[in-house]
Amino acid sequence: CCPRAARAGESRALGGGAGAGVAGRAVGRAAARRGAAGELSRRCAPPRLVAELRDALDACAERQRRLERSLRACRRLLRPWYADPETTRAGRPGRRPLAALLFPCRLRAGAAGVPGGSLGLAASLLALPRLSCLRREAAELPAAEPTPAPETQEEAPSPACTPSPQDLKELELLTQTLEKAVRVRKSVSKAAERHKALSLKSGSTAASAPSRVSGQAGRRASETKPLRCIHQTGVPAEGLPECRLLSAGDRTCKGKGARATKPGPGLRDQLPLAAPPAPEVFTLKEKGVLLKLPTAYRKAASQNSRLWTQLSSTQTSDSVDAATNAKTQFLQKMKMASGWPGSGLSAAEVEAEVGLLWKACSLLRQRMEEELLADCADWVQEYHCLLTLEGLQAITGQCLHRLQELRAEMVGQQLGPWPEERCPRASGSCEGRTDPTWSSQLLLYSSTAELQTLAALRLRVAMLEQQIHLEKVLMAELLPLVSTPEAQGPPPLALCRAVHSLLCEGGERFLTILRDEPAS
Amino acid sequence: MGRRRRAEQERAGAAGALPDAIAALSRTLPAGPSPETFRRAKFDRPEAAPPLWRMLFLALSPLPGDCAPAPRAPPAPPALGKPRPPRAPPTASPAPAGSRAPQPWPCPLAAGASGSCGPAPEAQVRLVKRALRSQGYPRRALAQLPEDGARGSRELLLALAWLLARGPLLERLLGRTRVRLGDEVALCQGEAPASPGPPAACGGADGPVDIRHLQWLMGKLRLQWRNLMTSQQEQCALLGKIHSYTRGCHSDRSLGHLSVAETEMLRDPEGGRQLLRRLESENARLEAALAWRRRELVFWQWMDTVLGACPLEAAQPPFLPRIPESGADQLEMVAQQLQALHEELQGAVEPRRAAWEARVGGSGSEWSALQRATQEAVGQELAALRRAWEEGGAPAQPHGPCRLVKSDARASGGPGLRAAEVIGALRSREACLEAVLRQLQSQCRQELAQLAAALPGLIWILPPGH
């Protein structure tokens, strides 16, 4: 047995979950090779344990799947989004305008909230993120507050869907605004010591942008470029063709087939001053604060919460009481009509009681251990201790009595014509107790670290609960394996070792068994 | 004359109220049968049976897992806790448009079933019977209904009324499929994934299994938990970012920022429209539930007549529901534990009592007052201990999903739980659970030590740390 013991030591050194599992299997394989010794180790464990462990694994996998779905969604939201502006150009009634795509229905900053495909709105759209970027980055330098802000805000975009001379004028104004903003930003960034990196980037891009802006005849490009440059998305704003290529590529990558019905080139020609044909890049980080929920949703959500609170409020009015009485009477009649004897317990109730008794057992034991460990300084304390222990004994006796009753009910039954299969655990203990309106409860956290702690603790609690359940099951199944006197002699040592590790160490560590050879 | 007309009017009013009540009920239930079905069921018409079976099946099956995910273009809104199950394929039942019938019983039972309707009718019937039995449904007639689901509409109607009378069935069903608008954390204990799907085949079909396989499974489980922890941390970080980036965007001031579901809706308008539709259909169901509440008295009066129309069940020998096997095992385990505890206590008490009696021979009067005081104190402590398990632990413990809201440390005004408190509660629960686990393990260790003592000629070296 010594080689195996040595290997056990090895496996202990490996430690950890993978180590234990792998080592266990390695031992097994080695044992298999050794033939006769292998038979001893291959003692069989009840299949029910495998089922339980597989259940536990499935539950874990289920959590993992949900988490991954959640993660994918979060990651997607944090990446830049792409909105296809062409679907909104024509301003068709069924379509959502560009503004709605990016910033549904209304912009927060007080710009005229006409949800139309109008250019003016798009212009102010483009201007505003600039302002917020500037505002955020130049927070320490109040002098950098850009003055164009009021100007563009007062710009009332025309409700027309097609561009008009007014739009052209607005666009010109916007271009000037952007130039100015860029200049301000340039000075801001140059002045800020701390934003060195920022200044490098924006300095270079700002330098290129104004030249492009001023020199461009086609407005199309002018809008795209400064915007793109100053977005620190790392997209190099080089040639317009490249922008377009990028956008086309992105669009195909996104695969939003349902929406990408591009109006024909004819439409494009009609709108020479259309907003940049390249899809807008939107990052949550930079423009998140500008989002606004659509009105329809807000109405529906508030109605939803109102209805839920109404539903969950337990008002005692006459009608409610009358209904409750009617229900109780109905239940009584049902019982009597079926010849039900009286206080039979359903399986769910028995299970619930057994759960409570488990809890009782652990609490009682805990208390007992506390009392046994406590030092009794004087007679009073000794008496206290004695009485407590006697009280615990009495309570334990009562619990046992209750168990006998439950057992008697189970045993003394007739098999009714019910199907025999095992019922899935009735609707989860949580569902039964949970008030559905708890969902409206808020949980406030102040920092990511706090949230992480909370989530980690919750997972740990769930894991511990699962471990305790498994431990109970393992105890019930494995202890009889090693304790019962076997006809073939003592149980194989490998089995003892495995059982010990599973039961006492959670499968993480192994003990070592050495054969004590008599020295003769 | 006037009295008769008034009475007629009352009857007419009452007659009007009943269809309203039933209509409200059918709008609220998932896959709710039409009011006509209810009426037919009273007369035990066979054509009313299948929709009622289906409705009961949906109401009684546990929250479905994501066994057969039907990934539609808009993703499910993410959550830290329980998310919604993916949108089920359209079913044949007359569900209101847009309301999701929860994905039926996962794959194994669906074998051989018609694709969109979930499991076969026989499986549905069996599940309904099982679930009702485990909840203690008193009537035998239900058990005797044929499994093809062709008959028994009156009995099913009674079963539905029984479920409605016993507890807040409608609220529970609505809560199960509630549209989650926020990022949720489920704080309840014993969360859903405890028993996913149908019971594992514990019939030992594979025969006895090697114990090394068990060790391997345990190791795998530990690894999975570790992966879960890391993924969870990452998700928290991302959530924190999203919450802080959308600060100030929400129309509801108390929330302050958008959740992932809401941001997703803005990113993907198609998904947003679907969310809106679901929200609106849920609102319709909620309104129907409120309408039902106002009118349910009439329904109960009607159900009395239905019950009266049933033939009386012959007085049969009382039968009690058979507790499933796992319940019996749990019972035995608890019994063993309690028995062991009892013996230990006995062993501790007897010598102390003897020592006490020896020391304080007669009952001096100066002791008796002290004794009484001590008795009272001990009695109160033990009563508190009893309450600790009978009332199910700390009643103030919040359970159920809560919506996460990131807010700066504010004064304790305003609604909502504070994360710090919840963390404290979780820590104490963690400590409690760890203590239980350690205690169980030490019990095992003692038993195995006894075993080791029985095997001579061996040295058992325990792993370090103990």
From TrEMBL, chain A:
Pfam families: DUF4693. It comes from the Eukaryota. InterPro entries: DUF4693. Signal peptide: none annotated. Residues 201-214 have a biased composition (Polar residues). Residues 1-13 have a biased composition (Low complexity). Residues 1-21, 141-166, 194-224 are annotated as: Disordered. PANTHER family: TUBULIN EPSILON AND DELTA COMPLEX PROTEIN 2. This is Tubulin epsilon and delta complex 2. It comes from Canis lupus familiaris. The gene is TEDC2.
From TrEMBL, chain B:
Residues 94-107 have a biased composition (Low complexity). Coiled coil: none annotated. Residues 71-80 have a biased composition (Pro residues). Pfam families: TEDC1. Residues 26-45, 68-107 are annotated as: Disordered. InterPro entries: TEDC1, TEDC1_dom. Residues 136-307 form the Tubulin epsilon and delta complex protein domain. This is Metastasis associated 1. The gene is TEDC1.
